[in-house]
Amino acid sequence: MDIKELSIKIEKKKTDIGKRKNVTLKFEKKLEKLTDKFDIKWMQEDIKSSKNKLRDLEIQLENLYKQQDKQNKINEVERIPIIEEFLEAWKKQAIEWYKKDYVRLKKNIRIRREKQKQLEEWRQKNHIGYYYNNPLVKEKEKELGLDQKIMQDALTARLLNEGKNWELYLEKEIEKDKNNKRALFIARVKEITGKITDVSWLTIGDNGEINGVVTGEEGKGKVETISAGGYNIQCFHFRVLVRKLEG
């Protein structure tokens, strides 16, 4: 969720809190005029329920403010051209991989449904019950390949629930991940170097990894990237290591 979306949610939550406060106030004013003990009891219950809902809304608003603060800190992280180039290349590669994985998963699910239909037709034709651990059914499932699980990445699986907007959702999720990776990258470097002053010795290799030396106000750090994936069922991912250079 980006800053704009968070701001909209925060304003809506504040409006909901205002409405709930008004409802609670109306209940309290009604209570002052009641004399029947049963009416008083029910109104007290309504007030209690309304205050609980108000408390829940206030907690939700507090959590949204925390998310906003976190996002602001991410957005405040300095942009260093060569690191941006590295992250943008990773983002493009990740998006392409997920698009292919989305197509693969949809195809596999369609094939599985067709096989499940074949299994059901076979079962009904042969008057075979579907009781727990039926060996005949188990054997047929194995024959059709239904005993094998469909491998799926968690994000790819979520894309299936987004309908026509799956590409837009994918773009937002990868951009969010890119921002988090930037913040983590810079933080790891600064732990060693302090404020960054020179990245001219950082380079991006043909394999997409970023390596080299970063200089800061508190010293130098050697950056090494360990990467994996980018094929089959694993998206390209990386881990950045930074170690202090003496002298």
Brief digest:
This protein has 247 residues and is of the alpha+beta class.
Write the SSE topology.
Elements: H1 3-33, H2 37-76, H3 81-125, H4 135-144, H5 154-159, H6 166-193, E1 196-204, E2 210-216, E3 219-228, E4 237-245
Antiparallel strand pairs: 1-2, 2-3, 3-4
Question: Can you offer a commentary on this structure?
Answer:
With 247 residues, the protein is α+β, with helices and mostly antiparallel strands. It folds into 2 domains: 3-76; 81-245, no CATH class. β3 and β4 form a beta hairpin. The chain has helices spanning 3-33, 37-76, 81-125, 135-144, 154-159, 166-193, and strands at 196-204, 210-216, 219-228, 237-245. The model has no long low-confidence stretch (mean pLDDT 89). The two termini are 43 Å apart. The longest helix has 45 residues, at 81-125. It has a 4-stranded antiparallel beta sheet with strand order 1-2-3-4, with helices on one face. The chain contains 6 helices and 4 strands.
